[in-house]
Amino acid sequence: MLLKTFGWSFAITALGLVAAVFYGGWEAFGVVAILAVLEISLSFDNAVVNAGILKKMNAFWQKIFLTVGVLIAVFGMRLVFPVVIVAITAKLNPYDAVHLALTDKDRYQQLVTDAHPAIAAFGGMFLLMIFLDFIFEDRDIQWLRWIERPLAKLGKVDMLAVCISLIVLLITSFTFATQAHQHGGAHADKAQTVLIAGIAGLITYMIVGGLSGYFEDRLEEEEEREHEEEEEAARTGRKKPAVLLAGQAAFFMFLYLEVLDASFSFDGVIGAFAITNDIVMMALGLGIGAMYVRSLTVYLVRQGTLDDYVFLEHGAHYAIGALAVILMVTIQYEINEVITGLVGVILIAWSFWSSVRRNRALADEGEGTDEKAEVSSGV
Predict the structure, then answer these.
(1) What Cα–Cα distance (Å) separates residue 303 from each residue in 39, 50, 185, 293, 359?
(2) What gap in Å lies between CA 14 and CA 35, rounded to an integer?
(3) How many whole angstroms separate alpha carbon 351 and alpha carbon 359?
(4) Regarding predicted confidence, which is higher, 19 or 372?
(5) Within 10 A of 16 (CB to CB), how many other CB atoms are there?
(6) pLDDT tens across 221-264, in order?
(7) Is the dihedral of CA 50, 54, 59, 64 positive or negative?
(8) Which has the minimum average pLDDT: 3-7, 284-288, 334-338?
(9) CA nearest 316: which of 275, 351, 276?
(10) CB 51 within 8 A of CB 43
(11) How far apart are CA 72 and CA 5, in angstroms?
(12) Is 245 helix (H, G, I), strand (E, B) or coil?
């Protein structure tokens, strides 16, 4: 079962890591492995959401999402999108960006380095909004309660996440401009670019969030309609057959899943720029990770077992928050890519272990309750 579900992902992982060794030696192997783990960890919650919606769709639309949808996710967002980002920020056409990356690494590296403040500001704002929207939401299950409980209360203030993000952007831009001026003003003109790129990242997040919200509303309307039909069937005594979403409803759900995947792809791709500027290693690492989104989705549809690890979503969002901070810092200071990658991996591993401990504690409590019940009943 496990090999059948994850077989293609394991094969792509092996091929990708071997290709990384041939491409850049063991250092490239390490970077690609970190990128893959980062993308996989950030995709856990995405896979959970995908599985929950896919269960309501018929076999045809499930197959469409797991084939066409994955092609869009892997080739569109993980392979093409990084090239588009570099092309826009370096003012190149996509072909020249790819050609330079493969044939003139020094020139490409220089272009990406020059464009890095804009990329980091755009991505930092996008990732920061994802983290803040998550951490300001009041949740029944809390991981780090000493942080999450007071922040959930603060989250009741409207538009707080946007205000904090804009304050961070203004401070970063002002600091960058001041540092550049003190060092001769060589990069003073880029302070405005940082500000504009950061605002663009904020706007992009709000657009993606708006589209996701629209499709979520359509899903809720469909679920309410089905609930009403079930109640009507119960009143009349007719048994309503379980109908999986098809037609227009399924098409909207397919679009919704693609928008969701695009939003999750943003954090993976933007986070990857905090680890490496090499689009070949980026494509290998993110491509491997994207395959696991499909495998995890299929596994969840069939088993649903990852729902038990309730803190994984928290760990993924804390990793996103850490990447956001790191990206904003790298506008002015250089941070080792291995450290950047390990921060996310450690947070995910910590949240996974916390989930395991929680499950064990709940199991022990359940056993203790059963024993008390047996004693009180005289068994």
Answers:
(1) 22, 14, 58, 15, 17
(2) 14
(3) 12
(4) 19
(5) 23
(6) 766 777 777 777 777 766 555 444 455 666 766 776 676 666 55
(7) negative
(8) 334-338
(9) 351
(10) no
(11) 20
(12) strand
User: What's the whole-number mean pLDDT along residues 27-49?
Assistant: 75
Question: 143-164, pLDDT tens digit by residue?
Answer: 878 888 888 888 778 788 889 9
Domain ranges for the chain:
1-365
Average pLDDT over residues 213-219: 70
Q: Which residues contact 285 (CB under 8 A, 6 or more apart)?
A: 16, 31, 32, 33, 34, 35, 36, 38, 39, 272
- Amino acid sitting at position 34: I
Q: How many CB atoms lie within 10 A of CB 192?
A: 12
Mean pLDDT computed over every residue of the chain: 75
Residue 90 tokens, joined: 């370096």
Copy the structure tokens of residue 371: 């024993």
CB atoms within 10 A of CB 267: 26
For the record, the structure tokens of 63 come out as 């197959």
Structure tokens at 70: 């994955």
Task: Look at the block and give the residue holding tokens 């060092």.
Answer: 183
Contact 350, 312 (CB under 8 A): no
What is the reported pLDDT for 46?
Answer: 62
Coil, helix or strand at residue 277:
coil
Residue 152 amino acid letter:
A
Q: What is the tens place of the pLDDT at every residue in 323-333?
A: 888 888 888 77
Residues 247 and 54 sit within 8 Å (Cβ to Cβ): no
- In the chain, what are the helix, strand and coil shares in percent, each to the nearest 5? 85, 0, 15
DSSP state of 139: -
